[in-house]
Design brief:
Elements (H helix, E strand, L loop, with lengths): L3 H10 L2 H13 L2 E5 L5 H9 L4 E6 L8 E8 L12 E6 L2 E6 L3 E8 H27 L14 H27 L1 E6 L1
Parallel strand pairs: 1-7
Antiparallel strand pairs: 2-3, 2-6, 3-4, 4-5, 6-7
Helix pairs in contact: 2-4, 2-5, 4-5
């Protein structure tokens, strides 16, 4: 219980890594962009891989200002069932269902929350561990080792704060990363 006050004080006064984690995650917005060509096997493979996921489609025609959102389904052209043939996409959102030819698509974006949580946890873990190590080293050794409990030396403090702030950073990073998500983008 001796360190409960120290932990609360540290969380309130010295948790700059929380802001660093939030800034890193909000600026990172991890994404994977695939440049595509119509009818290319990579294009059809991307659409097949992301089938049945929520997607946002931006059209080449700028008259539709808002992107179209819905569940992405791969739809081969009429009479052709080959995966190598140029595909159409079908977006299903509620009662609306719309087939979109790839020629009219500028960009397709799929957000993956689980991958975003993993990336956020890794970023938060790194920032938390590094800031905890710096905090432990900056406190130095305690002048009277007989009077202190654990941790007394700067090495012990470094490990203690590194583990504590690393765990907190990973949790915060996973939460923020899941909210932001990882973006897979198919761009024509």
């Amino acid at each position: 219980m001796r360190y409960a006050g120290t932990i609360i004080f540290w969380l309130c006064k010295k948790c700059i890594w929380i802001f660093l984690t939030l800034a890193a995650l909000s600026n990172a917005r991890c994404s994977t962009t695939t440049q595509a060509a119509l009818g290319a096997p990579a294009t059809n493979a991307w659409i097949t891989e992301h089938q049945s996921q929520d997607a946002r489609v931006a059209l080449r025609d700028r008259s539709e200002a808002l992107p179209i959102e819905g569940t992405l389904l791969r739809e081969p052209p009429a009479g052709q069932l080959s995966l190598r043939s140029p595909a159409q996409m079908r977006l299903v959102s509620g009662a609306n269902e719309r087939a979109i030819p790839l020629e009219s698509v500028r960009e397709v974006k799929v957000v993956k929350r689980a991958r975003g949580a993993l990336e956020g946890a890794l970023i938060g873990l790194g920032v938390g561990v590094l800031s905890g190590i710096a905090l432990g080293l900056s406190q130095g050794d305690s002048p009277h080792p007989d009077d202190c409990g654990y941790p007394c030396t700067s090495g012990e403090k470094m490990r203690f704060w590194g583990v504590l702030s690393g765990g907190l950073g990973a949790g915060l990073g996973a939460t923020v990363g899941a909210a932001i998500g990882h973006r897979d983008v198919l761009r024509f």
